[in-house]
Amino acid sequence: MLPINSISNGGLLENGQWEEIKPDVQISTLSRVKSWCTRLARPAFLTRSKGSNNKSLRKTAWLDGLRGFAAFLVYWHHHQLWARDGIRADKILENSFGYKDQYYFVCLPGIRTFFTGGHFAVTTFFVISGYVLSAKPLSLIHAGEYTKLGDNLASALFRRWIRLNVPIFVTMFIYMTTLHVFGIWIASHAHQRTYWDEVWKFYVEFKNFSFVFRTGGEPFFSYDVHLWSIPVEFRGSIAIYTSVLAFSRCTRNARLACEVGLIYYFIYIADGWFCALFTGGMLLCDLDLLSESDNLPSFLTILSPFKKSRPSTSSSQSPST
Fold first, then answer.
1. Which of 93, 216, 255, 264 is the Cys-Cys partner for 250 at CB 3.0 to 4.6 Å?
2. Where is the Acyltransferase domain positioned along the sequence (predicted)?
3. Maximum distance among all Cα pairs of the chain, rounded to whole angstroms
4. What is the pTM of this model?
5. Spatial distance between the Cα atoms of 162 and 157, rounded to a whole number of angstroms
6. Higher pLDDT, 252 or 106
């Protein structure tokens, strides 16, 4: 046994008498993979820690709820409407209560929205995209940071096609392979004789589908016709980036007037309804940023008595009662 004074002076550690304790249980690779998959699949509200309530949210975090509800409406629309072709559910759900003397409870105002709301939910996506895509560039314009504006737009435009189309290519290639190998039938697609023919058909369709400047041909991707909105999303993104850059040197009122004029042009002059939705989101974002800095045009000050403050983006602050 070591003397007491050697222990009190740290001799036990200095003399190497303390043996390293090694854990008897080693976590296997399979266990780590299972743990990672569990964390990935578990909803966020089940993994929220005690200190997470103090975490500040993004300025546009409030849009996530709107986006999520719109996504739910799109899913429910597809599940309830087009999956019921046998009973012609579209003739029932897409008409008002009492149409042709048919009175369905599901067609009452408000209730029908949950079954056919996917139509306007998609347009809501386009407005949200216009808002979010223009938020950073417009904030740089308001701050006069034109060099950073060019860098931001260059980066956003370079990444936009990749972010929209690469995930589709990967998932649809796996989907195409599954359909061909197992002979699964879908209404919008005819199987090819060999797998190579299937791959070639997939390639031809996808390269045309993902080309933003196409002027003809089949607008739908036969492997999943619901992806029609992805090229529209990319075209709308181009409209936002080019408009923001074109209006960047305008005065405040001139920029707002150009945004309103562009919406009118896309709706009433050119066939560009989706660009009008994107531009509408950009206009809303511009007005929001101007409102935060108390720099709205004078003619909008008449609405100041009706202005309501947006709830704080920090979840640590409780709303006033």
1. 255
2. 61-303
3. 101
4. 0.76
5. 9
6. 252
Q: Which amino acid is at 150?
A: G
Tokens of 159: 């990444």
pLDDT tens digits along 271-304: 899 999 999 999 999 999 998 898 888 888 777 7
CB 170 within 8 A of CB 202: no
Sign of the torsion formed by the C-alpha atoms of 78, 161, 207 and 265: positive
Average pLDDT (174-184) is 93
What is the predicted pLDDT for the residue at 206? 95
The DSSP bridge partners found for residue 56 are: 314
CA angle 73/237/252 to nearest 5° reads 110
User: What is the reported pLDDT for 300?
Assistant: 81
Dihedral sign from CA coordinates of 10, 14, 17, 21: positive
Cβ 121 vs Cβ 71: under 8 Å:
yes
Contact 259, 131 (CB under 8 A): no
Instruction: Give the separation between CA 159 and CA 162, rounded to whole angstroms.
Output: 5
Measure the CA–CA gap between 70 and 75, rounded to whole angstroms. 9
Q: Where are the domains of the chain?
A: 58-116, 128-294
Distance of CA 202 to the CA centre of its chain: 25
pLDDT at 76 over 50: yes
